[in-house]
Design goal:
three-stranded mixed beta sheet, disordered N terminus, 5 strands, globular, about 270 residues, mainly alpha, 8 helices
Length: about 270
């Protein structure tokens, strides 16, 4: 049992050959082409299942911000034209997928007050793609499943009482000890990478701080951070505030060159039809 548990956690702590832009070790078991296919397939399915907004003003606003953001994505990651869809849904959400896909729910537009705050959301979501977080999450899930299977087999061959409780406890340990902190590191990294990306695209990076202040108003009672897949709003605000010294010069350079985007948010966001 002891050696099986060692194997389990060794699998979960493996470091890949690559590193993220922030210097974090990465485990990636899938190729970029595999992830792109998954992203495209998922996006097509969502377009079939979720109503799509036909409001021209809303679409023009979202596309204006998206075009400015994606223009600064390295071609080595995706060289084609990004597909951007505005979903007619009250969900306060947005996402980006490998394969050049961006989805924005109209619900998030009621939280983002201007182009800069929407750019903060998009920068964050594209940041996940830039850092290949979906690859890491899929890889971590696969490795954790292998490790748990090994440990379960070992426990089944032992004489320990209450084996089911041990297995359940091990699952909880993996969830709170590995998977959740791993996701929090992704979210924090996407916040920082996204703030840089929005600033390079001509959007004021301090809008990312105000965005999370807006988001915190929607969360009346946050779960303890160690039980969440996301950092607390207070943690995110602190990290983004500290990183302004890095991202702000990118924005000021675009501002001095008079090349800032001019995306006009609709005065009224149509309510979802469904």
């Amino acid at each position: 049992m002891k050696y099986s548990l060692i194997i389990c956690f060794a699998l979960l702590s493996l470091s890949g050959c690559s590193t993220s832009s922030t210097g974090r070790n990465q485990v990636a078991l899938y190729s970029d082409s595999e992830l792109s296919k998954m992203g495209i397939t998922s996006f097509e399915q969502m377009k079939q299942e979720i109503p799509i907004s036909t409001d021209k003003v809303t679409n023009d606003f979202v596309l204006c911000v998206a075009d400015a953001i994606t223009e600064n994505v390295p071609e080595s990651l995706f060289s084609g034209e990004w597909e951007v869809v505005v979903f007619d849904s009250a969900q306060v959400n947005a996402f980006a997928l490998p394969g050049g896909k961006i989805g924005v729910y109209t619900g998030i537009l009621n939280v983002t007050e201007n182009q800069d705050q929407l750019a903060a959301i998009m920068g964050h979501e594209v940041g996940h793609v830039l850092e290949r977080h979906s690859n890491e999450r899929l890889s971590a899930s696969q490795l954790s499943n292998v490790g748990l299977a090994v440990a379960t087999i070992a426990l089944g061959a032992s004489d320990i009482d209450n084996q089911g409780l041990w297995v359940a406890g091990l699952g909880i340990g993996v969830q709170y000890g590995v998977i959740m902190p791993y996701s929090r590191s992704h979210e924090s990294e996407a916040d920082i990478v996204g703030q840089d990306l929005m600033a390079r695209s001509g959007f004021s990076p301090d809008a990312s701080i105000q965005l999370w202040k807006n988001m915190s108003k929607l969360s009346s009672a946050e779960s303890p951070e160690f039980m969440s897949t996301h950092p607390s709003n207070a943690t995110r605000i602190k990290q983004l505030t500290e990183h302004l010294a890095v991202s702000q010069p990118y924005y000021l350079s675009k501002k001095s060159a008079n090349t800032l985007p001019k995306c006009v948010k609709p005065s009224v966001i149509p309510k979802p039809k469904s």
